[in-house]
C-alpha cells in the first residue's frame, strides 16, 4: 500500500503547487528581463511589446503567459507518469488479447505501481488457471480414451459369448454353463470398472462433502477382514489384524474410508498371493493413527513407486483380467485419504510391500 505522502493524490497536489510556483517564478524572471532590456533599449521588437502591454493590457498578457507556463510545467513534470500510465494501458490491452505472459514493470510505490503489480498478479493467476484448464481437458480426454479401451475389452467378450449362446453354438449344457460363467465374470469386471470410474470422477471433478462421524477404526477394519474371507479363501491366503487397542476413535466418513481400505486389501490380495498372507497393523500416536496394509508378494519395481498413485497407472503393464483393473483403485485411495487430511505412502522390497496411511487421531 502506498505511503500517505507518496500516494497519487498527494503527487497531484504537489504537481499543482509546483507548477504554479515554477510558472510564477518563470513569469517574474521574464517580466524583469523584458523590463531591463526595454529600459536599456536592447529589446528586439519593442513596438510589438509596447502593443502587448499598452493596447492588450499588462494583466491580460501576464495571465495568458502564466496559464501557458502552468500547462507547460504540468505536462513536463507529469510526462513520466503519463508514459507509465500508457505502458500500463498497453499491458491491459495485451492481457485482454490473451497474452498472459507479459509483465508490467513496477516503477513507483504509488497507486500506479500498485495497479501494475495487481495486473501482473492477475495475469499470473489467469495464466495458471488457463494452464490448469488445458491440463484438465487433456487429463479428461486421456481418461476417456483409456477407460473406453478398458471398457471395450470385457464388453466385447460378453457380447461374443452371448452371441454364441444366442445362436446355439455350443455342444452341450456344460459348454453353455462355461460360456455363461465367462460372460458373468466379464460383466462383474465391467461393473467394477464402471464403479471405479464413477467414484474417481466424483472425487476428482466435484466437491465431495465428507459426512464425518466418530467411528471405531478397529471395528471398521475388523468388519472388512471378515467381508474378504471368501476372496481370501479362494486365493488360499490369510489376513491378520494387529492392534494395540480394541478401540481407536477417529472423525471420518465411514463409507469413504471403508472404500479406501477395501481397495488396499483387494490390491494386497491380487498382487500378494505368492506371500500367502496380508497383515494390517494399526498404531496409535499422540496426534495420529497409522495403518499399514502389508503383502508379501512380488515387489513393486523402484521405477514404478513414484507413480503408483497416479490414475490409470499400472505396475502390471499387461492389464490381465485376473489382476489388472482400471488403474484407478490406488488413485481413489489417495483422494479419499487426502480428503481426510491424511497421507499415504508406499514401500516395497523383496520382503514386503507396505502401504502406510496416516490419519489425524
Ordered list of secondary-structure elements with their pairings:
Layout: H1 8-39, H2 46-77, H3 79-96, H4 111-166, H5 173-205, E1 213-216, H6 217-227, H7 229-234, E2 238-242, E3 249-252, H8 254-271, E4 277-284, E5 288-295, H9 329-339, E6 343-348, E7 353-360
Parallel strand pairs: 2-4
Antiparallel strand pairs: 1-3, 4-5, 5-7, 6-7
Helix pairs in contact: 1-2, 3-4, 4-5, 5-9, 6-8, 8-9
Write structural notes for this entry.
Among the domains are: 8-77, no CATH class; 211-360, Histidine kinase-like ATPase, C-terminal domain (Heat Shock Protein 90, 2-Layer Sandwich). The radius of gyration is 40 Å and the shape is elongated. With 361 residues, the chain is an alpha+beta fold. It has a 5-stranded mixed sheet with strand order 2-4-5-7-6. The protein has helices at 8-39, 46-77, 79-96, 111-166, 173-205, 217-227, 229-234, 254-271, 329-339, and strands at residues 213-216, 238-242, 249-252, 277-284, 288-295, 343-348, 353-360. The chain is 60% helix and 12% strand. Helix 1 runs antiparallel to helix 2 (46-77) and helix 5 runs parallel beside helix 9.
Task: Write a brief structural summary.
The protein has 361 residues and is α+β, with helices and mostly antiparallel strands.
The number of helical runs is 9
Total strand count, please?
Answer: 7
CATH fold type of the domain at 211-360? Heat Shock Protein 90
Q: Compute the gyration radius: what is it?
A: 40 Å
Assign the structural class, choosing from mainly alpha, mainly beta, alpha/beta, alpha+beta, or little secondary structure: alpha+beta
Percent of sequence in beta strands: 5-15%
